[in-house]
Write a structure and sequence with these properties.
83% helix; 42 residues
C-alpha cells in the first residue's frame, strides 16, 4: 500500500516535469514578436 502511494507521487512529479518541458519547448519554438512587429502585423 505504501509502495503504491509513493509510486503515484513519483508518477505525478514525472508528469509535471513532462508538462513543464513541453511548454518550454512550445515557447522556444514559437517566434516571439516585438511590440513594433505586432503593430506592423495589425
Amino acid at each position: 500500500m505504501f509502495f503504491f502511494q509513493s509510486f503515484s507521487i513519483i508518477f505525478y512529479i514525472l508528469k509535471l516535469l513532462f508538462i513543464y518541458f513541453f511548454f518550454f519547448l512550445l515557447i522556444a519554438v514559437i517566434p516571439r514578436y516585438r511590440y513594433d512587429q505586432l503593430m506592423r502585423l495589425g
